Fold this protein.
Amino acid sequence: MSTQAERDKAAKQKKEQFVKNLKILDDLLKQPENKECADCRTRGPRWASTNLGVFICIRCSGIHRSLGVHISKVKSVTLDAWPDEQVEHMQKWGNAKVNEIYEANVPSSWKNRNLDSDQELERWIRTKYEKKEFMRKGGLDDVADERSEKSRRERDRDRERERE
């Protein structure tokens, strides 16, 4: 059984972590590529898909929730607590990188899309994330390969420096 002092200390640490992660997320939202919803381009997104790594608006967050957590896990940037791992995932990805992959092959018929209707917006989001119709060939595997290759090169460089 813990003492009141231990519980108070744990609560304080939890609050500090919440504030720290909120600051990081707020800073991410200030980056140009994250100032708009990843899907409909509405300014000032305050929600996120934590597993996809994108910031989205409240309208798109409802559609993302309807996709199911196996595709998109939605959180409020300001209302929910964020574990460090999820914050790090958002730092690693962000709207520009994710859209570079998921929108790599958008046909011209979708380029000037009108997403004013809820049905068209839902169709866009489902086609993008659920069906993955526009995804770059190789999808996320290419990114993982690029990262592992970069890591290998960095390790090799570090070893060379150690030898010098």
